[in-house]
Write a structure and sequence with these properties.
Number of helices: 22
Shape: rod-shaped
Radius of gyration: 47 Å
Largest sheet: 7 strands, antiparallel
C-alpha cells in the first residue's frame, strides 16, 4: 500500500528492488551461481554471514566455501526446481561444517540459481507447523466470510506476535479496502479505509501473485548491495522470487510516516487472481525466522482455500436469494397484483441480494420511487437515454451521469444505477440506485492526528491516501459485482416471464370478456324485445280501459313504473332473487303516500326469482291501484292486511284482505287490470290466483310455485320488518358521523351517494375522484368515516386506505367485484359495499361508524 504524491512517480516503485537497486535486507545473505556452480553474484555481507575468513571471490567454485554434504543437498533440491516461480526450502543446514546452522531458500532466476541464507532458529520449524492445525481448525468452523476474515486476522496476529494485522481486499476497480483488522488496543483503527489503485501498482500486484510473501524486518536498516551490480551478461538480477530483496525507498518512507518499524505482506490468491493481502505492521523492528514465515505462507495458501469455499457458499446463497425474489414475484405479481404496486414491496428482499440505496419503478408510464432516487421529473429526463440502450440487457454503471448528463441533477442522492428493462415497447424499467462512494465510506481513524512530513511528502500516510482515493472516486458509486449482475439478469428474466404470462392471461381474458359480452348483448337484446313487447301490450290493453288521455297516461305510467321498480330490485343483486317485501314497499310508497301505515305485512321473509318477480310486480301494482281507487285504501278508514305463508311444498301463498273500506262490487266489465290479476300467475308461472269480491272488502289468494321461491330465516332485511307494517330504516341521529370522505370516480354515483348521505343527516360530505385528491384532502382534514371506490380508472384506492388506517379513520370499500371480500382484513376496511348500493346500505354503515 504505497502512498501517492503528485510530485512523486510511484509507477515503478516496485520495479526498483527487482531490477535496479540490486540490494537485499541485511539479516540474510545471497549467492547467485551459474549452471556449473561458480559464484556469479553475491551480497556484500556474505562472508560475515557464513563466518568465512577469506572473501568468496566472484568466479570461484561454491564448493571452495561450503561443506560438501551441504552442497550436495543444495544441488539435490535445485534439481527439483521445475517451475520458474518455485522455491525450495532447507532448514537447519550446516553450510560450512562449523556447526552453525542456516535456513536456505533456493529458486531460479534466468540462467542462475539464487541461494538465500538466514540464521536458523533451532527447533522452530516443527513448532510453527504444529501451530497451524488448531488455527485452521478454528477457522474451518466459520461459515460467514466476514467472521472468517476477522478471525483469520486475529489468529495470524497471535501466531506472529505482531502489533497489527489487516486483511486488505481489492475491488473490481483495483482500489483496496481494509475489510478486517486485529490490532493492539492503543492503535487507531484502519478498518474500513479505502485506497486508490495507484497505491499498489500493476506490476506489484503481478508480483504478489508470483511471490506470496514480502517482509521488511527493519525500516531503518540500510539494505545490503549485491556485487557486482549486474550479471556477466550485463543485465540486472531479477529478484522477483527473492524473500530477502529490498523494497522501494518510497514504500519505506510510507511506513515511516505511519510509525511502522517492520512489516510483512502475505498474498491471498483465489482462482489465480489476487483477491487481497494480509498486511502486517509492527511498530518496532522484528525479524521473523524463516520457519515462522514459511508457516505463515502455508497459512495463506490454506486460508485462500477456505476463503474460496466461503465465497463459493456466498455465491450459492446469492443464487438462492435470487430464487426467493423470483418466487415472491411469481407468487405476488403473477397472482394478479399490479407490477407497479408489487415491486416496491419487494425492495427489502432485493436489498438482501443486491444492496442499493434507492429504487425506481417505471411501468406503463407510471413512476414510483423509494429511498435515495430521482423524482419523477428527473427520471423522465433520462428516459430517452435508457430507451436508446439494448432491450435485452441490463445497464450497470457506477457513474450514470457519464452516460446521461441530465443525471447530474440528482447526483446528491444517486450516482450509480442498475437499470433492468422489463419490457420492449413501451419501455418499462426497474432501476436500483446507489449513492456516491464518498457518501457511504467514512474515515475509520482519527482525522485530527498530526502528520509527520518526510522527504517524499506528507501524503504517504493511510489518511492522505484515503483522501486521494476520495478524489479519484468523486461522482462514483461502489461498482455492481458480477454476482449482483447475474442476480439482476435473473430478475429481468423473471419479470419478463411474468409480463408475458400476464399478457397471455390478458389476451385470454379479453377473449373471454368478448364472448361474455356477445352473450350479454344477445341476452339483453332478448330481454329488451320482451320488455318492448310487454310495454306494447300494456299500452294496447290500457287504451281500451281508459276513458281519457289523462287516465290512459296515469294507467300506463303506473304500470311501467311498477315494472321499472321490479327490474331495479332484481338487477341490484346482479339479476338475482329479490325480496317480496321490497316490492310491496315500493308500491305502497309510490301510490299510497300517507296511507302506508294502513298496510300491514305479516309472515316470513321470502325472495322471488327474477322471472317471477316482474309478473308478481304487475299483479301487486294492479291490486294496490284498485284498492287505492275503489277498495279499502280509497277512504280514510280502510285497512289492507297482507299475509305471507309457506306451504308444505315450500311454495309461496300470499293472502290479500281488505277491510273497513266502502262496499265492494264485482266488476261488470273484465278489464286488462283484472286480467293481469287473475290470469298472469297461472299463465306464466303455473301458479294459482283466486279473487273474491266480498261486500266487506276484496279477498284474494295467490300461490307461487316453490321453484321461484327462496325462503329466509326470521329476522328480515332490506329495510322491512318481518312481521308488521312496511317501513324504512333510518340511523339514530346521535350515531351519525359529522363528516364523510367519499372517493368515487363516477359523477352520477358520487352525486347520488352525496345526496343520500346529506338526506340521512350527514353534515359534510367531502367528494374526491382521484387518489391524489383524496390524499390531499386527508392532509387538510380528518373525516369521521370514508367510503372508497376501490377501482378509480387506472389506479386503485389502496394508498388512500393506508392513509386512513394510519389516521385511525374507519372506511368501507365500494366495489362491484365480490372477490375483494377476501382482502378486507389485509386492506384494513370495516366492510364492503357491493355496487350498486342504496340508501339502506348507507344507513347500515352510518350506524356502525360510531361503534367502530
Amino acid at each position: 500500500m504505497n502512498g501517492q504524491e503528485t510530485q512523486v512517480d510511484l509507477s515503478n516503485c516496485d520495479r526498483e528492488p527487482i531490477h535496479q537497486l540490486g540490494k537485499i535486507q541485511g539479516f540474510g545473505a545471497l549467492i547467485a551461481v551459474n549452471a556449473d556452480w561458480f559464484v556469479s553474484l553475491k551480497s556484500a555481507n556474505l562472508e560475515a554471514m557464513l563466518g568465512l575468513e577469506d572473501e568468496l571471490e566472484i568466479g570461484s567454485r561454491l564448493s571452495d566455501a561450503m561443506d560438501r554434504p551441504a552442497l550436495e543437498r543444495l544441488r539435490s533440491n535445485t534439481a527439483s526446481l521445475t517451475d520458474t516461480d518455485q522455491i525450495e526450502r532447507l532448514f537447519g543446514l550446516d553450510l560450512t561444517g562449523s556447526g552453525k546452522l542456516f535456513d536456505c531458500a533456493i529458486h531460479c532466476s534466468g540462467n542462475y540459481t539464487i541461494i538465500e541464507l538466514e540464521p536458523h532458529a533451532a527447533g522452530d520449524v516443527n513448532r510453527q507447523i504444529a501451530l497451524l492445525r488448531p488455527i485452521m481448525a478454528r477457522l474451518d468452523g466459520l461459515e460467514d466470510t466476514v467472521d472468517l476474515l476477522s478471525q483469520a486476522a486475529r489468529q495470524l496476529r497471535a501466531s506472529l506476535d505482531i502489533d497489527r494485522v489487516m486483511v486488505y481486499r481489492f475491488h473490481e476497480d483495483l482500489s483496496g479496502e481494509v475489510v478486517a483488522e486485529a490490532r493492539r488496543d492503543d492503535l487507531e483503527a484502519f478498518h474500513g479505509l479505502r485506497y486508490p489503485k495507484s497505491d499498489i501498482p500493476a506490476q506489484a500486484r503481478e508480483l504478489y501473485k508470483r511471490n506470496r510473501f514480502r517482509i521488511i524486518s527493519d525500516v531503518n536498516e540500510e539494505p545490503v548491495a549485491i556485487e557486482p551490480g549486474q550479471t556477466p551478461e550485463g543485465e540486472p538480477l531479477d529478484l522477483s522470487m527473492s524473500t530477502l530483496r529490498a523494497v522501494s525507498p518510497i514504500h519505506i518512507e510510507y511506513l515511516k510516516n505511519m510509525g511502522v518499524g517492520a512489516s510483512l505482506s502475505i498474498s491471498i490468491v483465489i482462482n489465480g487472481k489476487l483477491w487481497g493481502l494480509f498486511a502486517c505492521h509492527h511498530y518496532s523492528s522484528k525479524i521473523l525466522p524463516y520457519s515462522q514465515r514459511t508457516a505463515a505462507e502455508l497459512f495463506s495458501e490454506l486460508f485462500s482455500l477456505m476463503l474460496e469455499r466461503s465465497l463459493s457458499r456466498e455465491r450459492a446463497q446469492l443464487r438462492e436469494a435470487g430464487q426467493v425474489v423470483h418466487n415472491r414475484l411469481m407468487r405476488d405479481i403473477a397472482a394478479g397484483t399490479p407490477l407497479s404496486e408489487s415491486l416496491p414491496l419487494l425492495t427489502p428482499v432485493i436489498q438482501q441480494v443486491i444492496p442499493h440505496d434507492g429504487s425506481s419503478v417505471f411501468i406503463e408510464d407510471i413512476y414510483d420511487q423509494n429511498g435515495a432516487a430521482p423524482n419523477e421529473e428527473e427520471f423522465r429526463a433520462i428516459v430517452p437515454m435508457l430507451n436508446s440502450a439494448a432491450t435485452s440487457r441490463i445497464l450497470a454503471s457506477d457513474a450514470i451521469a457519464e452516460r446521461a448528463p441530465k443525471a447530474e441533477r440528482f447526483a446528491d442522492r444517486a450516482v450509480g444505477a442498475l437499470v433492468i428493462p422489463i419490457s420492449r415497447t413501451p419501455r418499462d424499467y426497474l432501476v436500483l440506485w446507489r449513492r456516491g462512494l464518498t457518501q457511504t465510506v467514512t474515515w475509520a481513524g482519527n482525522p485530527e492526528k498530526p502528520v509527520e512530513y518526510g522527504p517524499n511528502g506528507a501524503r504517504l500516510t493511510p489518511r492522505k491516501s484515503f483522501e486521494a482515493w476520495q478524489k479519484s472516486v468523486e461522482g462514483r458509486s461502489s461498482p455492481w459485482t458480477e454476482g449482483e449482475l447475474q442476480v439482476a439478469d435473473g430478475l429481468r428474466v423473471t419479470l419478463l416471464e411474468i409480463i408475458l404470462r400476464l399478457t397471455d392471461d390478458a389476451v385470454k381474458e379479453r377473449a373471454k370478456s368478448q364472448a361474455q359480452q356477445e352473450l350479454l348483448i344477445a341476452e339483453l337484446n332478448h330481454r329488451v324485445r320482451n320488455i318492448l313487447n310487454l310495454i306494447r301490450g300494456l299500452i294496447s290493453q290500457s287504451k281500451r280501459e281508459a276513458g281519457s288521455i289523462e287516465e290512459f297516461s296515469d294507467i300506463v305510467g303506473g304500470r311501467i313504473t311498477s315494472l321499472a321498480a321490479a327490474h331495479d330490485n332484481i338487477t341490484k343483486g346482479n339479476w338475482a332473487a329479490a325480496p317480496l317485501r321490497t316490492l310491496i314497499d315500493s308500491e305502497a310508497q309510490a301510490y299510497l303516500d300517507n296511507k302506508r301505515d294502513r298496510v300491514s305485512v305479516e309472515g316470513p321473509e321470502v325472495l322471488v326469482a327474477p322471472e317471477a318477480y316482474t309478473v308478481l310486480a304487475l299483479v301487486i301494482h294492479e291490486m294496490v291501484t284498485n284498492s287505492a281507487k275503489y277498495g279499502s285504501l280509497s277512504d280514510s278508514s280502510g285497512q289492507l292486511d297482507i299475509e305471507i305463508e309457506r306451504d308444505n311444498d315450500h311454495s309461496l301463498r300470499l293472502s290479500w284482505r281488505e277491510s273497513g273500506g266502502p262496499p265492494v262490487k264485482a266488476p261488470t266489465r273484465r278489464g286488462f287490470g283484472s286480467t293481469i290479476i287473475e290470469r298472469s300467475i297461472p299463465f306464466e308461472l303455473e301458479g294459482e290466483a283466486d279473487v273474491d269480491y266480498k261486500l266487506s272488502g276484496l279477498h284474494a289468494r295467490f300461490s307461487i310455485p316453490a321453484r321461484f321461491i327462496e325462503w329466509r330465516s326470521a329476522g328480515g332485511s332490506d329495510g322491512e320488518e318481518p312481521n308488521g307494517k312496511v317501513t324504512r330504516r333510518d340511523p339514530p341521529p346521535g350515531d351519525l358521523p359529522g363528516s364523510v370522505l367519499l372517493v368515487e370516480d363516477s359523477m352520477i354515483i358520487a352525486l347520488d351517494t352525496e345526496d343520500c348521505l346529506k338526506e340521512l343527516g350527514v353534515r359534510q360530505v367531502i367528494t374526491e375522484s382521484t387518489v391524489a385528491g383524496a390524499l390531499a384532502s386527508l392532509e387538510r382534514q380528518s373525516p369521521e368515516l370514508a367510503i372508497l371506490d376501490y377501482n378509480l380508472g387506472n389506479e386503485s384506492s389502496e394508498k388512500v386506505a393506508v392513509a386512513l388506517s394510519k389516521k385511525g379513520i374507519p372506511f368501507w370499500l365500494a366495489t362491484g367485484y365480490g372477490e375483494m371480500a377476501d382482502r378486507l382484513d389485509e386492506i384494513g376496511a370495516q366492510g364492503m359495499l357491493t355496487k350498486p348500493y342504496g340508501r339502506d346500505d348507507l344507513v347500515s354503515i352510518l350506524g356502525s361508524a360510531k361503534e367502530s
